[in-house]
Protein 1
Amino acid sequence: MTTSPTTVIVGGVAGGMSTATRLRRNDEHRDIIVLEASGHVSFANCGLPYHVGGVIPERSDLLLQTPQSLKERFNIDVRINTRAVSIDREAQTVTTQSGEVIHYDELVLSPGAAPFLPPIAGIEQALTLRTVEDVDAIVAAVEGMASAVIIGGGFIGLEMAENLRHRGMRTTLVEAGPQIMGPLDTEMAQIVATRMADNGVDIHTNAEATAITEHGVTLADGQVLAADVVIAAIGVRPATDLAKAAGLEISGTGGITVDRQQRTSDPRIFALGDAAAKKDIHTGEDALVPLAQTANRHGRLVADVIAGRDTTAKPVLGTAIVGLFGLAAASTGWNERRARKEGYNVRIIHLHPASHAGYYPGASQLHMKLVVDADTDAILGAQIVGDNGVDKRIDIIATAMRAGLTATDLADLELAYAPQFGSAKDPINFAGFINDNLVRGERTVQWHELDARMTAGATLVDVRTAAEFSNGAIPGAINIPLDELRERHTELAGADDLIVHCQVGLRGHNAARLLTNLGYTVANLDGGYVTWTHGKQAK
Ligand code: FAD
């Protein structure tokens, strides 16, 4: 009698459970064993912060499956509270912490990532968030408490800050870097910081926590931030202990090295999710992208490969979105910082269109940034922040990038339109129009380039109305409203370096076209006064 092959999966949440259930759909006869160190499988990690804030009041709503339900529906042998402690690759066995030795034909590692805890005095007093047990500990710790300090301004730290504010706690967020939300460029992150501050989160950037005591957090400059509870959300590190001890290759990123079929350096062992290195969309080099949708998609892929299908993983863009006090902040691909660091000749586009037709109730302003390779017109990345319509636009750009569309191609994408959903020229089309204009030789100046240009003698013309100008203007700008420019342009005769700007860039574009057609050489301030203000606020 032949025995069924056995697949053992380490980690029973995003990547592990996606692998397990797809594998069962692929193969009814295989033994599938899932080892999960915590007390729960298939729980909603991404929902954990919202239970702390009471947005998801029922803890049970976080628990999507149980070992019993997975046994009944999929005949998967799920063992909770079971940690895999070693792998014997020669014997093809995994040993659990209770000493049980389990044979595998294929082993799948999806153990996730562990919260990073830097060597700060008292760090053991800080709470972290990864599992249902962690969320239970945080809920118990914050009960009846008045104040919290969160260390780390990444998306988990920010989500925790929002949820602690929902509980009415005094909430301080400490970030060692110059800005919160690292995936965004500074002027885009500033919009998020402002929304957080408006909702009572006290943000300290360039603030390094050096000690945690029962009274709160001490910063490098000696300041003490009082807190009843301290939460560390300083980032995550791939959980690679098992893989390392088994001698599997680890990439320079710290993740487990895998090929395009998620195979590790041992062809019988696969790795995926936060523990595994991914391939960057632009460089093809190893990258860490600890996101749920990547883990889920790769789980499906691993199951297919095990079942004999010849399929490969695509490089990743790292498309992500976070919701904070009604604001959505999303990004895909590279930001400007990264693109410049990689030595690209970048073209940057900021725009601030309405989320849908302005005349239809409920429209709000989107803040969009496109990072383009000026040599090839390839889209390198995008960032979008706003109250409505952010998710749809970032997903369109991510899809365009995956499909290899150029930035100019965005101009002619045919997108669904009715006034409550978009505009006849969608913000995505607008990004393409602006790019097309730049490809054809129109000029822009970035917010961070303006000071140097002004110092060197540039003439800056604010083409907004006199009322807008008097409400706040860029130092050194002269005001010639767009509707008067045709008559007054001779006032600009002889200007060496002419820059125009308006509120968001559109009237500035009209002014630039008018002046260009009259024979001037002129540049438009990209993103207008709004982008300039965000950038200046961030400094
Ligand atoms: P996990 O889903 O973390 O599963 C790993 C499991 O392996 C864990 O349960 C762990 O207990 C278990 N394990 C570890 N070692 C062993 C061992 N030796 N033996 C047995 N079991 C072991 N991503 C998004 O895309 N969007 C979001 O909104 C989002 N929000 C998040 C919010 C929070 C609070 C957190 C913590 C993460 C969030 N993520 C989000 C990230 C997302 O949850 C992860 O990228 C994803 O879960 C990774 O899947 P994984 O299978 O690699 O690891």
Protein 2
Amino acid sequence: MKLHEYQSKELLARFGVPVPQGDVTSDPSEAKKIAEKLGGNVVVKAQVLMGGRGKAGGVKLFTNSDDAAAFAKDLIGKRLVSNQNPTGMIVEKILVAETVDIAKEFYVAILLDRNIQKSIVMLSAEGGMEIEEVAEHNPDAIIKLAIDPAYGLCDYELRKAVTDAKIPKEARNQMISMIKNLVKAYEAADAEMVEINPCALTPDGKLIAADAKVSIDDNSLFRHKDYQATSSDSAEDPIEAEANRRGIAYVKLGGQIGIIGNGAGLVMQSLDEITAAGGTPANFLDVGGGAQAERVKSCVELILMDPEVKGLFINIFGGITRVDEVAKGVLAAFEQLDTTIPVVARIEGTAVEEGRKILAGSRIIPASTVQEGAKMIVDLAKAS
Ligand code: GDP
Ligand code: MN
């Protein structure tokens, strides 16, 4: 789960990372008050969960509160579009913060490196631009330092890293303590990533986080109830947000064949078989063990919220899950939903005979293997 910039900065500040003064609001007149309180030299920033807000026109500097307020009024409710997010996102909240005087910009992040199975520090003196761009054009400018899970970071490693990254001498000690604090925040929040870009060096030699991004491991949200409350608001896709509210494991993939399976492995296999049959998966959806009719219905509804979906493939192996319950749920869903899309179901396992009886004569087409089912639904979707 991604946190907004203002939430990220709050978290980092609690762990001693310097961040600019500021406040978040969704009200333009409130924005003016915040700007006045900060003395008028402010930056107004759209709080949307996408990169490249600067280029998209969602970040602007002002020298007086009237202009800041006028921009805030314009920005709230606007759809911001960037090259990373062509559909864009509506701005609901804005951050009004004191402008940081920037002499130099750096990049610093703590993130999980799955290849080496450790968290790493990523550091570069090439801040301000997207790190992917730096990685492409000047990969040597990015320094990576693995964090030993037992011993943590040693001072000598950090000193070497800031030197190798060509952080200017006067900022090195500050950068080292910032990295240590970032690691503390990263661990306390069960984060997958904390990133500061740009990490600004002011003309009077102070290091401060001008921007911050934090992403928390979804599996740890039960330990972070305060963020959990906002998790459905901050999902990037409206269907994923609805899935969050319903407690369903759903990821939108952008293709045309909706998929329901039980168990992540079976769902992954379904994605592969749909792709192998020449189709494109619309989603990942794990209905979970012991799926009752009501839940299956909720899952079908969710998938059909995606207008791109041209066919539905159901792949259930009943262990804990009773296949007849699934069949009932699917039928109930389609009785109530206004759709004509083709549906293919491969069901196997506990109570399969009862399940097949329930589906017999319905619009749901049975398949005996996953491969056969995938091919059938891809062909049907193409024909429809
Ligand atoms: P992003 O584009 O979504 O990463 O948003 P950022 O918060 O990084 O803002 C984009 C750019 O605006 C930054 O790279 C800076 O160059 C500039 N910027 C943002 N905040 C400030 C600030 O307080 N002072 C100055 N001088 N520039 C800022
Ligand atoms: Mn940034």
